[in-house]
Each structure stands twice: as structure tokens, then as C-alpha cells.
């Protein structure tokens, strides 16, 4: 939602401006990272605020390490947010994908550029064109995530953020 995008932008800008903040961790709520954009908002004539693509670019440009703590699902725009982060940690039960192709849309926040850079063109094309979800274990093998954990994902992300 636009409220979530705005909160992410405000939080990142605040963290970047605060010299006491050494790293940023992005996580979801209730065991889910993000199911992506609210497609109902695509047709809203009053759609104003932060665009997902510009938010992800802001994350990517952060001079402080940004770690995604992926639990549950990271789909569509949610996965694109994670792709903009410098590091990604996933819970072993997490699932990731770009399912928007199944409703006739291509990933619109530069996921079609970031995913191939990260995991290679063949694997990225498969995910982008089929909408297939992958497990955390497969994501680790492909290089989509840096680590898979069985316990507390946010604690592992904070530990990694402090380490880097």
C-alpha cells in the first residue's frame, strides 16, 4: 500500500541521516515479508506518493547496509524490495517469486533487471515468465538469498547487519 511505501521511505531516509544508525533491516509483519503491491491501487486516479521503483532504488543506493529478513512470502513487489537490499536472509519455510505474470503483468519495479544480475539470466527468465515460486533452499542455491535460517529470521538479519 502507499502507506507502507511511505513508511519505508521515511524510515530509510531517517536511518541514512542518523550517524548512530550503522545498518538497516527490513522485515514484514505476522510471519510474512510482503505479498507485493496492492493491484487495486493501480487503477486509482488519485494514486500519489512514493513509487515502488524509486523506493527500491533508494534502498539500493543506501550507503548503510540494508538487510531483508524474509519470512513467509516475498512475492511480486515484495521480492523486488528484497532485491534492492544489499543482503537477504530467508527463513527455511519462506517462498519467493514474481507471480504477476499469471495475471498478465511483468514485474514493474526493475525486478526484471535486478533478478538476472543476481541469479543469472536462465533462472531469472524462468521465474519472471512462469510466475513460479521458489523455496528458500532453492533461492540460496541460486544466490537469491545469502543465508537460510531455521530460527528467528529478524535476529539473524540484525546479526548479519551488525557483522557487515
UniProtKB/TrEMBL annotation:
Reactions that this protein is recorded to catalyse: a (3Z)-enoyl-CoA = a 4-saturated (2E)-enoyl-CoA; (3S)-hydroxyhexadecanedioyl-CoA + NAD(+) = 3-oxohexadecanedioyl-CoA + NADH + H(+); (2S,3S)-3-hydroxy-2-methylbutanoyl-CoA = (2E)-2-methylbut-2-enoyl-CoA + H2O; a (3S)-3-hydroxyacyl-CoA + NAD(+) = a 3-oxoacyl-CoA + NADH + H(+)
InterPro entries hit by this protein: ClpP/crotonase-like_dom_sf (IPR029045), Enoyl-CoA_hyd/isom_CS (IPR018376), Enoyl-CoA_hydra/iso (IPR001753)
Pfam families, per database record: ECH_1
Gene3D superfamilies according to UniProt: 2-enoyl-CoA Hydratase, Chain A, domain 1
GO function term, MF aspect, one: enoyl-CoA hydratase activity
GO cellular component: a single term: peroxisome
GO BP term, pick one: fatty acid beta-oxidation
Keyword annotations of the record: Isomerase, Lyase, Multifunctional enzyme
Protein family: Belongs to the enoyl-CoA hydratase/isomerase family.
PANTHER family the record matches: 3-HYDROXYACYL-COA DEHYROGENASE (PTHR23309), PEROXISOMAL BIFUNCTIONAL ENZYME (PTHR23309:SF49)
Name of the protein described by the UniProt record: Peroxisomal bifunctional enzyme
Organism: Leptosomus discolor (Madagascar cuckoo roller)
Amino acid at each position: 500500500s502507499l502507506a507502507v511505501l511511505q513508511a519505508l521511505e521515511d524510515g530509510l531516509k531517517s536511518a541514512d541521516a542518523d550517524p548512530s544508525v550503522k545498518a538497516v533491516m527490513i522485515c514484514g509483519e505476522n510471519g510474512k515479508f510482503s505479498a507485493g503491491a496492492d493491484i487495486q491501487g493501480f487503477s486509482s486516479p488519485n494514486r500519489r506518493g512514493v513509487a515502488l521503483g524509486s523506493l527500491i532504488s533508494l534502498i539500493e543506493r543506501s550507503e548503510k547496509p540494508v538487510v531483508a529478513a524474509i519470512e513467509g512470502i516475498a512475492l511480486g513487489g515484495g521480492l523486488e524490495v528484497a532485491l534492492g537490499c544489499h543482503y537477504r536472509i530467508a527463513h527455511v519455510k519462506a517462498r519467493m517469486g514474481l507471480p504477476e505474470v499469471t495475471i498478465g503483468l511483468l514485474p514493474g519495479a526493475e525486478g526484471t533487471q535486478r533478478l538476472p544480475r543476481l541469479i543469472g539470466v536462465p533462472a531469472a527468465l524462468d521465474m519472471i515468465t512462469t510466475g513460479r515460486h521458489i523455496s528458500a533452499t532453492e533461492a540460496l542455491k541460486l544466490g537469491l538469498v545469502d543465508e537460510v535460517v531455521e530460527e528467528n529470521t529478524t535476529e539473524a538479519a540484525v546479526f548479519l547487519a551488525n557483522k557487515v
